[in-house]
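Supplementary Text 2. Reproducibility record for the structural model of the 594-residue chain.

All settings were left at their defaults, and a single model was retained for analysis rather than an ensemble. We include the record here because the model underlies the residue-level annotations in Supplementary Table 4.
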Amino acid sequence: MKKDQKQTVSIQKISADRAVYRPGFPVKWTVRLSDKGQESQGTYHLVVTHLGDKVGQKSGEWTTKEGEGTIVLDWRSPSMDYQGYLAQLELRNLDGQIVAHANKAIDVSSDWTKFPRYGYLTEFGGATTPEKTIEQMKDWQLNSIEYYDWKFLHHQLIPEDGAMTWQDWSGRQIDGNKVKMYIQQAKKANIVSMSYNMIYAATNNYQEYGVKADWLLHYAEEHGEKGKHKGEVFSFEMGDSPSGQSTLFFFDLDCSEWQTYIIQKNQEALAVMGFDGWHGDTVGEWGKMWAAADIGQEDQAKYVKNSYRSFLNTVKERLGNAYYLSFNPVGAQGIEQVNTSNVDVLYAEIWPWDKDSEGNLYEDYMSLKREIDQSRKESGGKSLIIPAYMEYDYAANQKIRQSFNQAAVLLTAAAVYAAGGSRMELGNGTEMLSNEYFPSNQLYMSCEHQKRQHALQEFIVAYQNILRDGLEDNQKPISIDQEKTSIDGQADTIWAYAKEKEGMEAIQLINLSGVMDVTWRANEGKKETPKKKSNLTVKYYTEQIYPHAYLTSPDPEFDGLSKKVAITQKRDQRGIYLEIPVSSLEYWAMLYFY
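Retained model, structure tokens:
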């Protein structure tokens, strides 16, 4: 064996056998090595940390032969529930020199709903590879999957004759057995599978399946368009459909007969296919509506969103503990109804022209944080999942696939995750969303973007107990020497705010320096890359005393590792503060104390 191997060995991949582990369960990692020197050996050292503190370690030997090698690592997760850990693996050669290192985060939670990491699937044809795709999604640290447009019809999810092949409304071939294979592979990885379906929709042939026209909703306002006049049926044209199922018709959520029908149809599909829950959807808020019996009675006109809570609670009661329930109030319209319902997780598709309950547009980074905070408050602590489609028009206009604007995606992600929310953006193995019709995929992640996205996914797991476990804004002042700061994500500033819970405080630093447009969407595909900052001096006005601070970031300079940094307690005219050095800020960094 050669003793002078320095940089010929690399860690190609660390794979965990599951996306999430129950407390006290064994964890298994498989480490794949590549060796340009073909054959060498050395030692490894594994350290597992929780928020920077060591909780376990393991050492052993590694070898490579014919340019490849494998290390299998075992670790038993601690008994404490809902914790995030970071495994740090270091390889040394026979001379004791470090030749490679990599990190892998571990989520130890008995249920996915506290820290949801939602992905999506849209490809269910014969050429799909469920085992490979689920493996890729597990590597993204996703613990739940929305199966988008897998079904036969909105009102008849699987064919009545039991057939396992069909066309969806757009003509795409669906292999029901492939859907089942995805679900089976996901269960092995401890990933939850959610069946996507509208809560109030049926297509053109609905009467053939026992759905009654008496259950339909009708416009109670004049929209001035063909098919949308006052008194006409509430409907939506999806596009060309070879099966003739191109129109969605919408039904009254308060109608007990509709409730019974659609809940039963979804329960049948969940049971037959093996899904873990129902992901309900809407087409957003379209103004006041009438039930069929109330047409023309102005005092009986109602908004669909005002029925969300009662409908969702009815669904959850009938599903019981056997199935999960998630739901999308499009544009976050009616989100307060959902937040106070019995759904298991919160999810809201955000559009920049919609407004929150205070009249603020959902157009900038701060608007995302504001809704995450409000939803957490209204729901009693749930973490809002946000589909916010990046570079929407730019993507739609591309004839040849283009790469995402990396800065745009990472800044939106930082705004969401730092606030305690989550994103719906990754799916189909290695794809990313840019459109509400999930099969649309005109944009892709570059290799560099994929590396950074993987680092981000590991980061949000390793530090989930800071990001999504009870810390709330404390309004304590923060300043940075010789830098402009803001508490609300203003252009060309370092967005800095602090959060705390008993025994812990954290500072979120999001770099908007040089970023003049703080709308999140990057609709034309453009977004400034933040100006990287070095050797910052942060002043945090708190009277709490800590022995040191931890500094971490998903950016490459930290790669999710926590570094202890010295702090100095000082006083000025504003009061007592902690002075903390921050060596680097590229996109997003976090300081925490406990």
